[in-house]
Amino acid sequence: MSGDSDCTRTSPSVGSLSDNEFLPDRPRYVCSLSPDLVTKAREELQEKPEWRLRDVQALRDMVCKDYPSLGTCLDDAFLLRFLRARKFDYDRALQLLVNYHTCRRSWPEVFNNLKPSAIKPVLESGFVTVLPHLDPEGRHVVCIRPDRWTPSNYPITENIRAIYLTLEKLIQSEETQVNGIVILADYKGVSLSKASHFGPFVAKKVIGILQDGFPVRIKAVNIINEPRIFKGIFAIIKPFLKEKIANRFFLHGCDLNSLHQNIPPVILPEEYGGTAGKLDISTWNELLLSSEEDLLHDFSALVLPCDSSPHDMLVSGDADEKQCDDSLRGMKPQLYYCY
């Protein structure tokens, strides 16, 4: 692992470029977007190809000026993820980048030794996978199935690690950066005992990462087969959701026709009333596991400096954990009531 705080490396699978004459060894970014996606990025994300490198350099300058000890990768391709996720608003992109590092540093149970081979049991269980076909908007569908998790086998943080690595792999694609993703969560068979593992502390951490700490555009969250207990789960989640994200949750129950209005049957597996064959987890598992070297190469750029100062990071720690633990005690009656 390099100790350079302004690491200039990036995954070779993500083309990267900079014309900065002062950093001649920085990987060169080459746009891989189709003409249609270039137009979509311009219309939806305010991304102007002729200004792209100028915008990246502006964000890089802000990082070096305001957060010199952040220990982040400064490659164009890496910084572009954050600009696209915040529609090229420099200040919001910078805050997202800082949040990204804060999340990684404040939850060691999730981010230490983070690599695909370390979460192989989760992948083999089928807890999380990515459907092989894109939806009509060009978005990947991430399928999460909590019923595949046996709590006695490993803690819930292993599931979160698997989801995070899945997102890291997906976001390497510029198409995903522009189009975003869709989540399909199947809550079939989720019991009270299993739901109790997802308390407010874990909920706040996960929602914080997905909303404010990761450069991905979540366009829809489709929930199916949710039992009565989901009312309690959603009661835990909702206080941490921004209105924009909360409005992208769709609860379908057992109504597959309702699900098909959001995700067409042609890309869904038979298990969800689709025509794309049986749900296959092996293809995604093999892709993610084969990407370990690339992901570790990316992660090696993210250094935790010894001289990080508290004002560089978002507020987190014992006080938040205690507050969430207190909230959990208040939420448990709701879970039992809904169950």
UniProtKB/TrEMBL annotation:
What is the source species? Ceyx cyanopectus (Indigo-banded kingfisher)
Q: Which residues constitute the signal peptide according to the record?
A: none
Q: Where is this region: Disordered?
A: 1-25
Pfam families per record: CRAL_TRIO (PF00650), CRAL_TRIO_N (PF03765)
User: Which is one Gene Ontology cellular component term of this protein?
Assistant: membrane
- The name on file for this protein is TTPAL protein
Q: Which domain of life is it from?
A: Eukaryota
Q: Which InterPro entries match?
A: CRAL-TRIO_dom, CRAL-TRIO_dom_sf, CRAL/TRIO_N_dom, CRAL/TRIO_N_dom_sf
Recorded GO molecular functions are: phosphatidylinositol bisphosphate binding
Gene assigned in the entry: Ttpal
Q: Which residues form a coiled coil?
A: none
Q: Provide the CRAL-TRIO domain boundaries.
A: 115-280
Stretches of Polar residues bias are at: 8-19
